[in-house]
Amino acid sequence: MNEPTTRTQTSVDATATEHTRSRYDIAAPVYDWMEWPVERGLYRSWRKTLWAEVDGPEVLEIGVGTGKNIPYYPEDVRVTAIDLSPGMLRRARQVADRHPEKQVMLREMDAQALDFADETFDDVVATFVFCSVPDPVRGLREALRVTQSRKRSGRLHLLEHVRASPPWLARLMDLLDGPMHWLTGVHIARRTVQNVQAASWTVDDVSLLTWGDIYRRITAHKPPEGKSPSTL
Known about the structure:
Structural class: alpha/beta
Distance between the termini: 36 Å
CATH class: Alpha Beta
Number of domains: 1
Helix content: 25-40%
Strand order of the largest sheet: 3-2-1-4-5-7-6
CATH topology: Rossmann fold
Strand content: 15-25%
């Protein structure tokens, strides 16, 4: 594989990145158990719908975690699935072993410094990930870099929990964001739609999935070369 040619220029905050890695390594053995109610009640159906619209054939999943998306990978695409946490990847490998029909390659990697050449992938997918990437705009710019812009524009597919719309709830999330991040590695008050735009993706659609607009599905594409990104 060729080396990347135009990496994002800002440096990675090693301390913040290690904090996130350590929190997910600690949580990995009980992560699925902790998320079981919301996974069964909400996330599972959202994952299925999202992956049904991923065309590929070359797909990057950022933040594969314990492998919850693997059962929903289309069988005609090749997925390179990365995660920052070795503990989470060990769980994902167990899921991949149970689904030999899926074409998946698992790699330990930081979303803020992707070890791929420019325009390697047709689609990039992440589910509940950019709340945890220490520098989300850098990570989203890296995703843009490795997404192809030939023929049709490469696409970004996200499921995210974000800062709420109701002002009282947004203020509460702002207040709790710091302690929650220290404890879990997760930011609960990220403005992810704005971060996607700041990373130069063109946002195509934002679907509000629950009351308070906390959960959103975001789809975007890579603007053709020489064109500026647009917004909704």
